[in-house]
C-alpha cells in the first residue's frame, strides 16, 4: 500500500475555503482550489499547527468556529525549537521578509516535519 502524501495546510487555505465566494475571478479560483483541497483531506496525511489554530480562531466568533470545525480531525503540530531556529534563518537569509515572520514559521514547521506545504 502506497503511503499517503503528507501535507501542511496553512491558514490561508482554510480562510479561502471558508469565506463567501468572491466576485473577483482570481480570488474565487483560490477559494475553489482551497475548498477542493479540504474536501480531499482524507486522501492525504494532513497537518496544521498550533500557529494555524491560533490564526483561524481569531476574528468573528461564528466564522472562527466554522474555520475551527473544518480542521477538526486534522493532526496538529507544535512549534519546535528547531522550527523557530529555521524560521529565523529564513528571515536572516532574506528568503522570507521580516514582516512575514509567521509565514517563515509555517514554512519551518512543515520543513522540520518533512511535510509538503499546501
* Principal-axis shape: globular
Estimated helix fraction: 40-55%
Q: Would you list the SSEs in sequence order as H and E?
A: EHHEHHEHHE
Radius of gyration: 15 Å
Total count of helical runs of at least 4 residues: 6
Strand percent estimate: 5-15%
Q: Which regions are unreliable across 5 or more consecutive residues at pLDDT < 50?
A: none
**CATH architecture tag:** 3-Layer(aba) Sandwich
Task: Output the CATH homologous superfamily.
Answer: 5'-nuclease
Mean pLDDT across every amino acid position:
93
- The count of domains is 1
Fill in the CATH topology: Rossmann fold
Topology, number of strands: 4
Protein model, in words:
The protein is globular. It has one domain (6-117): Rossmann fold. It has a 4-stranded parallel β-sheet with strand order 3-2-1-4. The two termini are 23 Å apart. The protein has helices at 11-18, 25-39, 50-56, 61-70, 81-92, 101-112, and strands at residues 6-8, 45-49, 75-77, 116-117. The protein is an alpha/beta fold and 118 residues long. Helix 1 crosses helix 2.
Amino acid at each position: 500500500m502506497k503511503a499517503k502524501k503528507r501535507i501542511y495546510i496553512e491558514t490561508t487555505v482554510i480562510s479561502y475555503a471558508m469565506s463567501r465566494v468572491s466576485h473577483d475571478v482570481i480570488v474565487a479560483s483560490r477559494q475553489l482550489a482551497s475548498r477542493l483541497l479540504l474536501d480531499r483531506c482524507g486522501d492525504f496525511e494532513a497537518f496544521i499547527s498550533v500557529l494555524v489554530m491560533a490564526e483561524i480562531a481569531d476574528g468573528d466568533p461564528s466564522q472562527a468556529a466554522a474555520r475551527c470545525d473544518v480542521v477538526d480531525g486534522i493532526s496538529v503540530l507544535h512549534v519546535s525549537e528547531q522550527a523557530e531556529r529555521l524560521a529565523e534563518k529564513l528571515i536572516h537569509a532574506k528568503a522570507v521578509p521580516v514582516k512575514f515572520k509567521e509565514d517563515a514559521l509555517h514554512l519551518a514547521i512543515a520543513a522540520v516535519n518533512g511535510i509538503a506545504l499546501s
